[in-house]
UniProtKB/TrEMBL annotation:
Compositional bias (Basic and acidic residues): 203-215
UniProt cross-references to InterPro entries, sorted A to Z: Trp_biosyn_TM_oprn/chp (IPR019051)
Keywords: Membrane, Transmembrane, Transmembrane helix
Name this polypeptide is given: Peptidase
Keyword flag Transmembrane helix: yes
Comp. bias regions, Low complexity: 177-188
Domain of life according to the entry: Bacteria
Lineage: Bacteria, Bacillati, Actinomycetota, Actinomycetes, Micrococcales
Listed transmembrane segments: 12-32, 52-72, 79-100, 135-156
Region (Disordered): 177-215
Amino acid sequence: MKRTGRTLKLRLVLLVIAASGLALLAWSQVWIDVSVVQGSSTVRLPISGSTAAGALSALALAGIALAGALTIAGPVIRVVLGVLEVLLGFSVSLGAGLAIGNPAAASAAAITKATGIAGNASIQDGVTAAALTPWAFTGFAAGVIMAAAGVGIFVTSSRWPGATSRYQAVRFEAADGAPGSQPAASAGADEREDAVITWDGLTRGDDPTTTEGDR
């Protein structure tokens, strides 16, 4: 059972990393090839995921950070992180889905910058074609995978092995002090006490080289 839990944990953490990396890769690629009429000519513009769904990069990076947190999280925090991963995946899919559903609107900022055409109505009228590339659907799929990984984390995290027992042992040992530290501290205190006694004797005129029997 422990080995199964460890395998589940490893696979889900790797799945989160892979899905987040895929979303980040898709974000950097061209999603839409849009053609816009400008005067008597037609302008073709490649629209990347960074323009069509700009939030994907932050969401993907958050997913990668969440995978790192999963490796050291306790049982309760794992559940919270699982829910958070579902929300991240949903947000990635939503951003990609909006671009897929309305590529002209997703391209509006780039169209305005390249042609000077502004306003949703003008842009919609000026766009003659908007072809989606596979990367737009890849971004959507990455979000679905992230959400599925979050569900897996939520459902199976109770079967994961405890990852903090060794850390807690080291922490408590550091807090209590290493073995042998208390005797060393006691010996230091005895030496300081002997030094004070010797000094008091010198102030009274005692000779520290004489023994108790000689006096």
